[in-house]
Design goal:
Number of helices: 9
Distance between the termini: 22 Å
Helix content: 25-40%
Mean pLDDT: 94
Structural class: alpha/beta
Shape: globular
Radius of gyration: 18 Å
Order of helices and strands: EHEHEEEHEEEHEHEEHEHEHEH
Low-confidence stretches: none
CATH topology of the largest domain: Rossmann fold
Length: about 260
């Protein structure tokens, strides 16, 4: 069994679109009897918004950096939530911080914005968030919190240690977003859970991973062959098996039986 796991932003979904060549490559991959899995920090709502306009289907979804796993129709197979006390303490501490937006994601509905310290609340990754008050946040079952601090290294140096030193959470920094998840969750753990759920021994699976960011590294470490791209950070490129032009180029190699030791 061959499985391809795809990051979304910067990998499949680029500049608010999915290239026709990528759409066709994923269709061809699945038509050949292989599985396609989205593996992303995005929420259910955000993945729907990204994939459905381009008629892209996945067999499974590893979402919120491995914190929620669904079937092809977004039926939840596995879920975990952040501790409500942590959510509310972090929101209280970050409330009103200039240069920082705090977003929350849940299983239902659009992504929420809790704290807005950047004038424009939308960005390339979260579109049209709903406003969530601190009072409303207390009633939400939050899967992931994300502090958005783009191009602000001093603020990141202040906020990230404060959270990491106080709370038992998994964290990931990616394109200005500092994501906070329930402990022990990554894209790698999500894919591992999915393989176990499917009853597929690891030795019987050829796993190919596609991603351009640091939060993709845990799944790249599991892969028989991992792919990243020329625009990825040099450290990500150094830790992937192959640097390819785009997803279709990587899938052509995967279908041909490329291994980790093969050429680019």
């Amino acid at each position: 069994m061959k499985i391809a796991a795809f990051d979304m932003d910067g990998t499949v979904y680029i500049d608010h679109a999915i290239a026709p060549e990528t759409v066709q490559a994923i269709k061809d991959w699945r038509a050949a009897g292989n599985l396609a899995v989205s593996a992303t920090g995005k929420s259910i709502d955000s993945v729907r918004r990204a994939l459905e306009p381009f008629d892209v289907d996945m067999d499974y979804h590893v979402l919120y950096n491995g914190t929620v796993i669904t079937d092809a129709n977004y039926g939840v197979l596995y879920e975990h939530h952040l501790d409500a006390e942590i959510v509310n303490e972090v929101a209280a501490h970050l409330d009103g911080t200039p240069g920082l937006n705090l977003y929350c994601t849940t299983l239902d509905g659009a992504d929420g914005i809790v704290t807005q310290g950047i004038p424009e609340s939308s960005n390339d990754f979260i579109q049209c968030p709903r406003v969530v008050s601190r009072a409303e946040l207390e009633d939400e079952k939050v899967v992931l919190l994300s502090a958005y601090m783009p191009d602000n290294q001093p603020l990141q140096n202040q906020i990230i240690p404060w959270i990491n030193e106080r709370y038992d959470v998994s964290t990931s920094l990616n394109t200005g977003f500092f994501d906070m998840m329930p402990p022990g969750h990554t894209k790698g753990t999500g894919l591992t859970w999915l393989l176990e759920h499917l009853g597929l021994p690891r030795a019987e699976v050829e796993l190919f991973t596609f991603g351009d960011s640091f939060n993709d590294l845990p799944m790249h470490e599991l892969a028989d062959a991992s792919f990243t791209f020329p625009h990825a950070h040099p450290d990500v490129q150094a830790r992937a098996h192959h640097v390819v032009a785009d997803v279709p180029a990587g899938l052509r190699l995967a279908r041909a039986g490329l291994s980790a030791s093969g050429g680019d």
